[in-house]
Amino acid sequence: MTTFHDVLLILTFVFPLLGSLILALSFGRLSERASATIGVASIGLAALCTLWVGIEFYDQGKSAQTLTLWHWVTVGDFRPTVGLMLDGLSLTLLGVITGVGFFIHLFAAWYMRGEDGVTRFFCHMNLFVFSMILLVLGDNLLLLYFGWEGVGLCSYLLIGYYYRTPANGWAAFKAFIITRTGDVFLAIGMFLLYDQLGSLNLQTLLARAPEIWSQGGLMPQLTALMLLGGAVGKSAQLPLHTWLADAMAGPTPVSALIHAATMVTAGVYLIARMNGIFLMAPDVLLLVGVVGALTLLVAGFAALAQTDIKRVLAYSTMSQIGYMFLALGVGAFDAAIFHLMIHAFFKALLFLSAGSVIICTHHEQDMRRLGGLWRKLPLTYAGFIVGGAALAALPLVTAGFYSKDAILVSALASGHGVLMLAGLFGALLTSIYTVRLILGTFHGKPKSDNARSAHAGKGLVHGTPLVVLIVMSTAVGAQLTPPLDEVLPPGPVAEGMAVHILEFTAMIVAVGGVLFAGWLFKRRRDLIRRGMADPRGARLWTFWHNAWGFDTLYDWLFVRPYQGVVRVNRGDWINSLCNILPWLARASHQGLRTTQTGLMRHYAVSMVLGATLLLVFLLVG
Amino acid sequence: MSDVVNQGAMMALLAISPLILVCLTVIVVMLSIAWKRNHTLSAILTAVGLNAALLALLFGWTLGTVDVTSVLVVDDLSRFGGVLVLMSTLACVTLAHHYLEGYEGPRDEFYLLLTSAAAGGLVLVSARHMTTLFFGIELLSMPLFGMLAYTFRDRGALESGIKYMVLSAAATAFLLFGMALLYAVTGTLDFAELGAALSTRGSDPWLLAGAGLLLVGLAFKLSIVPFHLWTPDVYQGGPGPATTFLATASKVAVFLVLLRLFQSTLAFHENWWHDLLGFIAVITMLVGNLLALTQNDLKRLLGYSSIAHFGYLLVALVVNQGLAVETVGIYLVTYVLTTLGAFGVVTLVSSPYVATGGTADASPLHHYRGLFWRRPYLTAVMTVSMLSLAGIPFTAGFIGKFYIIAVGVEAHRWWLVGSVVVGSAIGLYYYLRVMVTLFLHEPGMQRRDATHDWAERAGGMVVLGVATLVILLGLYPTPMINWVNWVAG
């Protein structure tokens, strides 16, 4: 019996789907305004449903609920369900997706004004939200995988939104292909799970894993490794991180929603959801932390040397997700999800503010051509200041402080000192690139006509999302505690002097980093100039600007060997081997086609022949 | 005493009331034509009659198995088949109404033929005796000759009708000869008694010859290799609605009677008999798909594809254990829906009838080039149908194919499963080719288009509804599975 509550839960993803379908089936007949209204309203309704679902969830004592809608196919034991599971974890994600998603959609209605194909934009955005909700609500890995591929597809479509520029198409390809590499690992992980544990249901899996597997055995390690492969692809972590910066080719609201707030954190969700598997594979879990720590450092350095404001934010996203992975790696699943939520607030704010800058300065997003905007765009500036402060985790007043602090404390408590130090150092980098970003964009003299003729964004559609997200990025947002107690295992706890020292150090690092960067970029630009003049400094800058040269590395490691093999194999005997199949098919086709003479007498003869053969077989055999 | 008899008679009457209603429809439409020719009126009368029959069928479901006479049985399976036959016929009526609007000759008689053929289909799915089998098949086929050659001034249609007629006659000869041999040996024509006779004297060469010839006759109707050669020619030439009927109602009815025949002669199944059928299934799948490979004519392509699909269906028949009956049911439902979608689009694009340069229908694939840019919804329907025919997940076709493979795997029939996979892989190629064609930019070639108001026509609505069903059943197949399980169980 489906209750009203269940219906609401279903409606959370039905509304976006409906919105997407209506927009898709309109075939461009809707006006821009109508498209935007439908696109935003569907997510708004989904957000309201989520709110209601959340309230009832709290009323009912935060217990996990499952809702099996139907069995997709029923063949013997294989009965994949289309079922939903609502618990603290999925509710948190659901809230982020529909809540933050709604404000981003609202902002997009302003951002996309006058663009070509607004209907297409909102259709894909709604479809994205639908897939993302299925990803987090699905009670089995098959549904999760469906959502996982759905968001990947929408990501591809939206990165390539301005498809008339070939580079954007290539960026979309890159994102799609690299994340697909990860998806293959995820699929293998799913096969392993089904083969070993005989189910894909999340709860069943977590219950059966300890019964069937031994702690730290080969199978759990292998499975966890495969799941991790899927997670790093989706969440742009080392070594599958190279696509995210290029993904900024999409419209900025897309970057805010997909490449900052929701989709790229799917990997974090996956690992947190499969925590039981990862806890049985301690080595892999540690690897998760190491991957996170490395990524946050690599991305932090890369962010220092970017000139495009969106690319700075992209690298900072990678770096922040690195923090989440670090938290996961030390077993602090709740801290990771908490940071995921807070990060969604402030990074969405930063991206939307960046979008505001871009529109207000006539599509200028290069820091070298911006500057001096803070008087002209006060609200946007406020968004950057608050978002940046949260990103840099300035103590006490910002939301980011609380979530990042929790991660560092967990790292300390788990005894992984190196990871903790990496986190601290990353915090310093964060402060520096944030200040550099804000100073470069808003202070100094305007460095181009576009910056000089900037005009502030007007209207509620532009202002509301920024104001709401500004509020959520302050300590107010940190008051929202995800109800994770019953879903995730408790993280490592530490008390005593060490914690206070760490917290204090973290504060000093954040504030000190900001002050240092302010001093460096404001007062002693000559230092930087001198550093850049030095060939070694310039080389370092280029190195970081290209994000440690991973693209080049992969070019050498994968693309060139591949091309080399292709060149060697120009005659392509493998392909010739494979071509036997089509050739065979075509030859048989040609052969068989000659039987289709169109002459009735031939047809009749073939019937007689066939009947004769049949009889001979029956009587002799 | 007489009460009991009367009650039995009532039950029997109720049970075959759909058949009676369909026959009544034929008479009413005929009288109405005699009184006054009115194309729309005839179509409406036919639709009303068929709907009434469908309702009677659904209400009759509570009756359970009713032995109407010793030659007809109305049970869940025959009702299931009846629903499919009547639904397809109804879809054909709606399509025909739009299609025939442009035809100058007499239009109303088409509905007479269509309804008579539907009556034949209803008899066939209830047959449990060779006489009814024969009667049903002929009642189904004879009107089809007329339907296929209905637009007889068109050379293609005439050719199609004549080819089908002559070859059908040959197939009927095989069928009759097979029956005669069976009767000569066993002295009975009842399915169950034949089954008993076959199980005891299975190796009698005359019996085997009889069974083989019977199979030839039925295999012709189902276009099983090597009795398939007529299919593309007939599909290509026949008018859209007639081909639609041939591809759906006619094949479903014949397949269901074959299934019933198999069910009654279970004990007859020996290994080599399975091997023979398995071999036929394999070559049917492969040949059907291979023939379609570079086909540039959509109707021919669909013809070849239907050959392949009945090859897949044969797998369930060969295995004939476990989920086989469910599989047949589910596959038939998905096949009928998908085929209605595909042929519906072809018919709508060819509607209203215009005789142009030899071909009346938009049959060549290049007529569909760039259809997306002109008729996006129609293209969506075609795309969904192609995906479903190819068995892509989230369409009904996938569910059907999944069952086929599951049945094969369960019975460890690896050759069959392998052929299904290979066949599907080949199939993907030409289904995708059709889809690509739909989305290409048109080069300004000669083309046909559905009329602008196609979606407001009954036929258009049916086609849209069918496409929606194909998607819905792909996502949420539970009702279909439950229904079929209930029928089979």
Note down, in words, how this protein is organized.
Chain A: One of its GO terms (molecular function) is NADH dehydrogenase activity. Chain A: It holds the Pfam family Proton_antipo_N. The complex is a heterodimer of chains A (621) and B (489). Helices cover 74% and strands 2% of the residues of chain A. By secondary structure, chain A is an all-alpha fold. In chain A, strands 1-2 form a two-stranded antiparallel sheet. The model of chain A has no long low-confidence stretch (mean pLDDT 85). Chain B has helices spanning 2-15, 17-35, 39-59, 76-99, 109-126, 130-148, 155-186, 191-200, 205-221, 230-237, 240-264, 271-292, 298-319, 324-350, 371-374, 376-390, 396-410, 414-439, 458-475, 478-488, and strands spanning 66-67, 73-74. Chain B has a two-stranded antiparallel ribbon. Chain B contains 20 helices and 2 strands. Chain B has 489 residues and is mainly alpha-helical. In chain B, strand 1 and strand 2 (73-74) form a beta hairpin. Chain B has a domain at 275-489.
Determine the fraction of residues in helical runs of chain A and give it as a percent range.
Answer: over 70%
SSE run of chain B = HHHEEHHHHHHHHHHHHHHHHH
* Gross morphology of chain B: globular
Total strands of chain B = 2
Instruction: Characterize the biggest β-sheet of chain B.
Output: 2 strands, antiparallel
Q: Provide the residue-averaged pLDDT of chain A.
A: 85
C-alpha end-to-end distance of chain B: 33 Å
Biggest β-sheet: strands ordered side by side in the sheet of chain A = 1-2
Distance between the termini of chain A: 58 Å
The biggest beta sheet of chain A, please? 2 strands, antiparallel
Strand percentage of chain A lies at: under 5%
β-strand number of chain A: 2
Oligomer: heterodimer
Uncertain runs of chain B are none
> Fraction of residues of chain B in helices?
over 70%
| Helix run count of chain B | 20
Q: Using only CA atoms, what is the Rg of chain A?
A: 27 Å
Structural class of chain B: mainly alpha
Radius of gyration of chain B: 22 Å
Membrane topology (chain A): Multi-pass membrane protein
Protein name (chain A): NADH-quinone oxidoreductase subunit L
Domain NADH:quinone oxidoreductase/Mrp antiporter transmembrane (chain A): 139-430
InterPro entries (chain A): NADHpl_OxRdtase_5_subgr (IPR018393), ND/Mrp_TM (IPR001750), NU5C-like (IPR003945), Proton_antipo_N (IPR001516)
